[in-house]
Amino acid sequence: MVNWAYLAGFIDCDGWVTQSNGRYVIGLTQSRIFLDQMKQISEFLTENRVFHSFIERDTVTMIRGEESTAKMCNIHIKAQEALRIVCEAILPYSLIKKDKIESCLAYAKERLAKRGVGIELPAKQLEKRKWNRLELEILADMRIKGYGHRYIAHKLGRSVNSVSRKFHKLNGGK
Question: What is the pLDDT of residue 125?
């Protein structure tokens, strides 16, 4: 059964926490031999409202001068709120990558605070939080500038559905 301690161990051993182009990413890469375990981790992240990507792919490598195809699967966590949730939950159990996880957590909290996102809310309440005036102003400004719902949702730390519903209500919908 997957829990935060299991995920922390998995990331400590086979995962990675990296910063590239000023952004953090937490990831896991495994052979498809472990596909069931990776799907369980993905389901656990979804249940805990952690936005992530799950990708199955073929990769070509050279072994003793000959091409070989390996079947791999990846989980990537990039969104600041998702990084915050994961880092806070796994930090007490992390040993090897504890410093990187602390840095990632500080990054996520700083980015969320700059955007005015209420990081003090528990993950279960995040999707149900009320729209504040600043968010509505940013929403209107970004829409006027032609940004799409997905990009606006990402910038506001909200789901695409939340942004779409808000637009619908603002345009006279129920």
Answer: 47
Q: How many CB atoms lie within 10 A of CB 173?
A: 9
Query: Which pLDDT does position 117 carry in this prediction?
Result: 62
Q: Which two tokens stand for residue 138?
A: 């940013």
38-48 pLDDT per residue, tens: 999 999 999 99
Q: What secondary structure does DSSP assign to 69-136, as a single string?
A: EEEEEEEEE-SHHHHHHHHHHHGGG-STTHHHHHHHHHHHHHHHHHTT--TTS-HHHHTTPPPPHHHH
Write out the two tokens for 104. Answer: 């990632």
CB of 30 within 8 A of CB of 70?
no
Contact 125, 85 (CB under 8 A): no
Q: Does domain 4-114 have CATH number 3.30.70.1400?
A: no
Whether residue 142 is predicted with pLDDT greater than 60 in this model: the reply is yes
SS3 (DSSP) at 12: helix
Q: CA-to-CA distance for 11 and 5, rounded, in angstroms?
A: 10
Using a cut of 0.85, tell me whether the model's pTM lies above it: no
